[in-house]
Amino acid sequence: MNLTLENVIYRYETGNEVLNGIDLTLSDGEILCLLGPNGSGKTTLFKLILGLMPPSGGRVTLNGRDVTAYPRRELGKILGYVPQNHIPAFPYSVLDMVVMGRNAHLENGRAPKQRDYDIARGALEDMGIESLAEKNYIRISGGERQLVLIARALAQQAKILILDEPTGNLDFGNQVRVLRQIRRLAKTGIAVLMSSHFPGDAFQNASRAALLKDGKIRESGAPEEVITEKNLKALYGVDVSVAAARDRAGNLYRVCVPARRD
Amino acid sequence: MRPGNETAGFLRRRKYLLLAALTLAAAAVSLTLGRYPADAADVFTVMRLRLTGADPGEYAALSGIIFAVRLPRVAGALLIGAALAVSGAAYQGVFRNPLVSSDLLGVSAGAGFGAAMAILASANMITVHFVSFFCGLGAVAASYFISARLSGGLKEGTLVMVLAGILVSTVFQALIAFIKTVADPFNKLPAITYWLMGGLSSLTSAQLSLIAPPIIVGALPLLLLRWKLNLLTLGEEESLALGLRPALVRTVAVVCATLVTAAAVSVSGIIGWIGLVIPHLVRSLTGPDYRDLIPMSLFLGGLYLLVIDTVARTVLTMEIPLGILTALIGAPFFVYLLRRMKEAW
């Protein structure tokens, strides 16, 4: 599977440009982490990739074919969307939520069968949360909900996962857990595009990072090359040091340390 | 939400059989009740005589009452209760809001206006039903077109549709009030008022055969597509990303639910609360999954209205309008359900 964006432009009817010439590629097993301040166009970019709306200019293609030209169900078999965890209007069980991922694989108008429920349970097992299956999705923790939504994308058997700030609104432990699971999935060959507000997520997880500001990709490449003090200053307008730290196993990691002015 | 004790487990496995048996039992009991005394054995005998085509003999009077009055009423209560409950469940999914009911888009106000207008024009009962039915559909169509003009179609937000529904309902309520002020206060005004309060007292098998086809035609797609309604409640973008065509499912659900409600209220008058209370009751019993919610709502909605209608026609010497009873019983019951559901939500 190959996702390609060529000179993608998006502007509102009022003429305001949100995205202004985006080029990106993503292939199997890669993790691309998209960083950018609020309002930089990350969400719009995801909507275009998911085919939720057509770009004003340029092309978003999957294996050479325009995403907007795919029937919705075909697209659903390839692209899995993991939204920011939210509370649905009704208190579905975790299993009910995950089995909804099977929709793209069902014949027109059909409901899921035993086999689909088995796949959904398998996806929960894969995420290590099979014990949550009968729990009320509304009553579990934010981190668990995020894992459930990833499990749903797995039940969808998507080849490419689009994750909208998977570490947003999670406590520290859950951030680490969610990132670990994403890394594991990429090793199985799934391509991952995730947005984040934490540059550290890119160091920890990503094979590539892209910095988005004012509708343009400012830098893109290996996280170590892209996430520099100078680039972070340009992206967020704050002074940050990029330092090296060792984990317990002795691996060298980069971390971002905001400068204290006082 | 998914109770784990033994009784609940039994209920879950056997719920449809159990509900069917319960409904049948309630129908049988309801047939025995009324001003003309009868017990279960009498009703059974009358049924048997009718089915074998034998001469009813001493049971002629009872046979007449059961087949001309009580049976259409029992069947009508089941059908109309089921219709109101299932359309409420569907609307709640479409609008992603557990607190909306089927008259959200103005179907009741439209139907009420149609009926009031027809009564004012001294139309016969069948005409009243027809005018009411089409005015109900017309009101929802008006809500739909207003919201389409305002927001560029169903795609953008259901909020505009809700607002349009409120607008349309308000206009029709005003028109109903106007008709009431000009109606003859000695016979037409009471007829209009009585219609608006809802009731099944004049239900005949002819009317039943009028409303049964639209209710069945409308309920069938809701039954077939019911699991997809789950995805619809996740919102436009998420359901698209899951491979659904939300606009299509939403349109089918709104059209079917409207057809079903309009048919029901065109003969029953305005009976509130069933479309709100029953889906909630079902959620507290079997969870929010539409796979169970739709068929369970059909069953429990029918059963609920049958019980209420039986009460309405038997406790006092005069009929109690149904709308009054469903509100008086429905509101406290809803408080109880909300208390129970605090745990789930």
Quick gist of this model?
The complex is a heterodimer of chains A (about 260) and B (about 350). Chain A has nine helices and twelve strands. By secondary structure, chain A is α/β, with parallel strands linked by helices.
Description:
The complex is a heterodimer of chains A (262) and B (345). With 262 residues, chain A is α/β, with parallel strands linked by helices. Helices cover 32% and strands 28% of the residues of chain A. Chain A contains 9 helices and 12 strands. Chain A has helices at residues 42-49, 72-78, 94-99, 114-126, 142-155, 172-187, 199-205, 223-226, 229-236; strands at 2-11, 17-27, 31-35, 57-62, 65-66, 79-82, 160-163, 191-196, 208-213, 216-221, 240-246, 252-258. In chain A, the strands form 3 sheets. Chain A has a 6-stranded mixed beta sheet with strand order 6-7-8-3-9-10. In chain A, helix 6 links the parallel strand 7 (160-163) and strand 8. The model of chain A has no long low-confidence stretch (mean pLDDT 92). Chain B is mainly α. Chain B has a single domain, classed as ABC transporter involved in vitamin B12 uptake, BtuC (Orthogonal Bundle). Chain B contains 14 helices and no strands. Chain B has helices spanning 6-32, 40-52, 60-94, 107-120, 125-151, 159-182, 188-197, 205-224, 226-232, 236-241, 246-268, 274-286, 290-314, 322-341. In chain B, helix 2 packs across helix 3 (60-94) and helix 4 runs parallel beside helix 6. The N and C termini of chain B lie close together (9 Å). The A-B interface holds A 47, 50-52, 72-77, 79-81, 83, 88-93, 96, 100-101, 103-104, 109, 111-112, 134, 136, 138-139, 156 and B 1-2, 96-98, 224-228, 230-231, 233-234, 237-238, 240-245, 283, 287-289, 291, 344-345.
